[in-house]
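Hi R.,

Here's the chain you asked about this morning:
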Amino acid sequence: MNRPSPQLNTVVSETFDLLQRTLDTYRPRPRAQEVGIVTFAGPAVVRVKGLRSVQAEELILFEDGRLGMAFNVDEEETGVVLLDEHEGIWAGSEAERTGRVLDVPAGEQLLGRVVDPQGRPLDGREIVRGVERRPMEGPAPALMDRLPVTVPLQTGIKVVDALIPIGRGQRELILGDRQTGKTAIALDTIINQRDKGMICIYCAVGKRDSAVARAVSDLRERGAMEYSVVVVANEKDPPGIQFVAPYAAMSIGEYFMEKGSDVLVVFDDLTRHARAYREISLLLRRPPGREAFPGDIFYIHSRLLERSTHLKRELGGGSLTALPIVETEAQNISAYIPTNLISITDGQIYLSPELFQKGTLPAVDVGKSVSRVGGKTQLAAYRAVAGDLRLSYSQFEELEAFARFGTQLDEDTRNTLERGRRVREILKQPQYEPLSVPEQIAVLVAVNEGVFDSIPLGKIAAAQQRIWQAAVSDMRDLAAKISQGDKLTREEIETIRRVAESATGEAGHGNP
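And the predicted structure, written out as tokens:
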């Protein structure tokens, strides 16, 4: 065996000596820590002096491990919004910069989980691990990175899919007074996405624990949690965590969108989000404006909802649809926050307390509801059977209101009223019972063709059930064409009418 030469031994020995001297003389440079002192500690905000290089929205770490977010970056003091409870933070406590902005975990591991806006589990299960962390705030996609909204988002609710359609990538506002069914529409939409390849994110802001628990239970019972993430900032949480919750949900949604998935994000609701922002802004002495809201209240919602889009194929081709919910008072849709959100979104679904009290559920006011984008994405079958339904139904509601003052009505007016009452009856739908597209089309064709005209109002529900069953069992090929978006010919409409008449033959006829 050849032995190494003396010259090689010398080189190796000198190299090791050099490495040893380097290690002996190396002294790690201490990391410069910028530490400030708390000068004021309140229940939701603190003011810190000494953080001269702090950045906006940077995480601030306090002595007891609690976190805050730099909100006001002034020359002398930094206003910090607390993301945890304020107990243990006093004037004189130390506050340290972390060097990173507020972020949230995002990944497939979140599916089926209930977390807070910082990714901490609220469902009693283990901590979410192995996920990517994304900043909560991010720029909206550029105009040239977007595609037109062309694919419908089926809610499974007849009155919405037929008269106020929503497209994937759209922002559709849901608004109405308290207890009118706003959350019910959002949950039905999430449940209807089962087996459709869509990721759903439900963001609860400022709601009671019992209401959130009931919503999560309903989603889990119907198998919707398999493809859903629930982000919760309840009414007992600090206003700072309520403020960042929608941005956290949007960042999680963007992760899946950039992977090429279609995403639905529900914000329930942005009224409480605006109030949380008003609270922390006033505590930090920001100048109040209308209704004591700060001047940038419009901006906080626009920069959130503008992140909804349909990405071009080179960027993954995913979409993110937003359904923000806002609460009105005494049906005042012209109030400050509702009008802000109406101007930001691409349409609104208005729920009327009067319809709710009359038992017309979902209580959608067709006359005050609109979709500025979804009509272009609507399946062709809807356009064939529901094209004039919206206008005629609105005219019926006006005619019904005036007819109450008259005793003698001509035959045409009576027929119009009877047809309108049947349209209203078939648009009723129980919660958690979304319908497929062929089932909806079959009923809409039946009411347009007068199949229900001779059926008493009390038996309309039973007649609908028979038509739904017939649509699935007797028209399989036609149902597949409808689901694919093919146009309905006159012959196919006649086929649906004959099937509907046959199905309702035993439903019971009589004087309407």
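The chain has three domains: 35-101, 105-378, 383-503.

Let me know if you need anything else.
M.
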